[in-house]
Write a structure and sequence with these properties.
Rossmann fold; 257 residues; 4-stranded antiparallel β-sheet; 4 helices; alpha/beta; Lipoxygenase-1; 30% strand; 5-stranded mixed β-sheet; globular
Length: 257
Amino acid sequence: LSGLDPAQPYFQGTPTEVRLDKSDADFVDIIHTDSAPTIPNLGFGITPAIGHIDFYPNGGKQMPGCGKNPVSQIVDLDGIWEGTRDFVACNHLRSYKYYSDSIIYPDGFLGYPCASYELFQSGKCFPCPEEGCPNMGHYADKFKDKIKNGFLKLYLNTGEARDFPLWRYKVTVTLSGRTKVKGYVNVALYGSGGNTKQYQITKGTLKPDNTYTAYIDAEVNVGKVTKVKFLWNNNWINPTFPKLGAATITVEVGQNR
């Protein structure tokens, strides 16, 4: 039984007979997309974990792409009707859009077990544990036999618009060079499944022999990594033409470590 942002008003804090609960089926998975308090935030979705596994994409309160201005939201790509509904309840309706995308992407929407969204964002809950991570949506039940007791809260990020799934990577860069410079470092991943755009790993002072780490949510599952593109820029013209390279670049995949 999949709960697509189950309702908060009149249901939150009520006995289990009244609302959706893990006792309602052999396996209950929940997607929380609008779990901010109803007052004053107008959140329509229930906040607490109530299933066997509970997914909180983007933290579960504010979904990317739902903060657009009213005009662009109403004149939506999917039509006026869809756009108007999104304007009224965009976060709430993301739950079924993620679910429908999950049918097409069996390897997408990996949920990472974590104590909070803030810890997930900082990379503390990366990579997946030994037993792996469940996939939010249609294929969540593949994880059914791996659940231990209690509630399992899972976090992930999604895109702003279709297609919604993102794949998380940890990228670590150790720089080489002679002198420290100011600027930024970008990395793009190339692989058997596709290529990513450039992602910023760090910006500010770049010191040779220092190691910089970033967690990137890529728009494509690159599969087996075949190449990494390294790019750095020092924001302004420097007459000494400083050189900077990457001594090593390490890419770690969340799913299989």
